[in-house]
Amino acid sequence: MYERRPSGPEPAVSSSETPRGDPAQAFHITCAVTDTDPACGAAVVSVAGTLTFTNGAALWETLHAALPGDPQTALCFDLSAVDVIDGGAMALLVQTKWDRETAGARCEFVGASGATAQLLELLDGDASPTVPPARPHVGYFGQLGNRTLATLREVQLFLAFLGSMVLEVGGVLRRPRTANWKDVAPVMTRTGVDAVPIIVLITFLIGFVMAFQSAVQLKQFGANIYVADLVALSITRELGPLMVAIVVSGRSGAAFAAELGTMKVSEEIDALRTMGIGPLRFLVFPRVLALFLVMPVLTLIGDVVGILGGLVVGVVNLDITVVGYLHQTQRALDVWDVFQGLIKASVFGLAIGLISCSQGLITTGGAEGVGRRTTAAVVASLFTLILLDAAFAITLHELGL
Amino acid sequence: MTTPSITVRNLTMGWDELILLEDASFDVAEGEVFAILGASGCGKSTLLRYLTGLDEPMAGTVRLAGIGAPTLEVGRPAYGVMFQSGALFGSMTVGENLALALNEWTRLPRAAVSAIVRAKLRLVGLQGSEHQYPAELSGGMTKRAAIARAMVLEPRLLFLDEPSSGLDPVSAAELDDLILTLNRGLGLTVVLVTHELPSIFAVVTQCIVLDRESRSILAQGAPRTLRDESTSSAVRNFFTRNVAKGGV
Ligand SMILES: Nc1ncnc2c1ncn2[C@@H]1O[C@H](COP(=O)(O)OP(=O)(O)O)[C@@H](O)[C@H]1O
Ligand SMILES: [Mg+2]
Question: Which of A98, A354, A399, B144 has its CA at 20 to 30 Å from residue B96's CA atom?
């Protein structure tokens, strides 16, 4: 739609933007000083022809060039020769008259008839510019303080949200029928099944690249077979859950925040509440539960596929047999290695779901607000994932697991 | 009747699974305040989307005088549209909402744009709201601002989706006055969707009543005539039942 700009406005406009005095011009503005005119003061500004907002630029310029230099000169705008004038062009005349009046000149419109008079009736009046309200200036430290307070308030909001969520889960446990179970399966499909292709692709490549990079080093020591240990352990314990969580927060976390945010700004959430339906139980619970359940499954798929990626490199590049690679993997891996990765994945799922939904629910400010909250949901989720991952690593290490 | 401003022929409205109107034809004459009436869900907003070119009908044609088929995004819009919610851009002030189209379609200097913006706001009675954000406006003010925004490109034809719905009676009456001003004072042809009986009798000169059941235009004419003289009791009921509701 932007091609039309270079080609300019319609021909009618360009013809009316020809220099002043050109006979093709659609309007004429002349200013004559006549002390003798009884109705008016010193200067009569005669406006004639067809005036539309499309040739407003020329009109504006012509008009100002024609006016007498002394802003105190009384003016009489004679509109009797106007053929056609639209609201935009009339607004320009009214503004010009008003500006001169506020400068102290006596001004009036004369000779308007028919449609012109009607338009004048509607538009003539106080055309003084409105002053934008002064927005208080805040210095750097003030801004820093405001941001800090805003962040703290968000943390406070999130904690309150977590608290309410715990109460909701308690309520659901006591009376399971009150929960919105019917949304759980569809959300699991959207966040789980639909994410499998991208998860497979990414974890395969992670396993593949990791094996490929380490193969060079391991070959030097004749330690080819240990590529299986390296891939298996780092995928199951660390990279599998983390990569899956990053993909899920980008796919589903963003979707949750956008969905709930849009519902919030279009007052749908309020409508739910007026019907006595809590948005936490109705909207947040099924989403968070779905992620909690789906994350370990996706991670397990990611673990298997990542190990396959390593296997391809082992077989093609390091002359390890398929059986040999799998056997070595089995020896390297403990059930606990996989299991702790899956626990971690579930916790990541909870975090992504809770953070994204809470961001959605606090959305304000229309479409722009939805965008802001969606961004915030993904950023906060990623940040939290890294923190949680570090916390897991330290805790498990201290526990000797 | 003067020259038709909008000509609709053999229009079929709906979607494959839901037909709302079949083979309908009507004209809107220049200078009318033309209302699309009917029960909720009968397709009034959908018809308005066809008339404004936001959607294309399943079959049939819509022609606007001097324009042809309504098309969007191919040139300067020749008609203004006000959406039911106002649809003002929340990230811009009211003034910026109005200036947007002017800056896109003209090369007016800043001072001139703002003069036009202020004139339009005065016209709708919103002087002083130029620097406010849409979120800071009341429901009635939002609708006025949306009408002002629809007016900046000097349309001769204005489409309004439920201009006075959801407003208190005073604001609704003020909005009716504004519509009359636009129609009688500026000579605009106005096509509107409304539910409010007081507004129908106050401003509307011609109307059509849509009926979903029969997928047809139930009646066409001036509202008072239809109320008093229609041979169809369904049509008479439509006008009187609504009056009873409006009176409560
Ligand atoms: N995109 C769509 N696809 C299918 N049906 C729709 C669509 N949009 C609206 N409808 C249906 O069309 C009917 C008419 O809608 P609408 O024109 O908004 O009615 P109203 O007369 O209340 O303005 C409604 O029943 C609505 O559910
Ligand atoms: Mg509607």
Answer: A98
Is the pTM above the cut of 0.80? no
Q: Which of B11, B13, B46, B238 to mutate to test the pocket of ligand 1 (most atoms within 8 A of CB)?
A: B46
**Do residues A242 and A319 both lie within one domain?**
yes
Of B119, B128, B181, the CB nearest to A91: B119
Binary contact (B90, A126; C-beta < 8 A): no
Same domain, yes or no, for A256 and A353?
Answer: yes
Q: What is the DSSP string of A47-91?
A: EEEEE-GGGHHHHHHHHHHHS-S-TTS-EEEEEEEEEEE-HHHHH
| Paired tokens of B58 | 């399943």
Q: Do A129 and B186 touch (CB under 8 A)?
A: no
The CATH number covering residue A76 comes to: 3.30.750.24
ipTM value, please give it: 0.72
Q: Tens of pLDDT along A126-144?
A: 888 878 878 788 899 999 9
Among candidates B130, B154, B185 on the partner chain, residue whose Cβ is nearest the Cβ of A130: B130
A275: which DSSP letter?
T
Q: Domain span at residue A239?
A: 167-398
Interval between CA A255 and ligand 1 midpoint (Å): 26
Q: How many distinct structural domains can be found in chain A?
A: 2
Q: Tell me which amino acid residue A398 is.
A: E
Per-residue tokens: A117: 């008079």
Query: Å from B237 to nearest chain A CA?
Result: 32
What's the CA angle centered on A371, arms A365 and A372, to 5 degrees? 75
Verify that A264 and A361 share a domain, yes or no: yes
Burial letters A159-197, b for 16+ CB under 10 A, else e: eebeeebeebbebbeeeeeebbeebbeebbebbbeebee
Given a contact cutoff of 8 angstroms between Cβ atoms, the answer to whether B45 and B38 are in contact is no
In a domain, A222, yes or no: yes
Evaluate: CB of B44 within 6 angstroms of ligand 1. Answer: yes
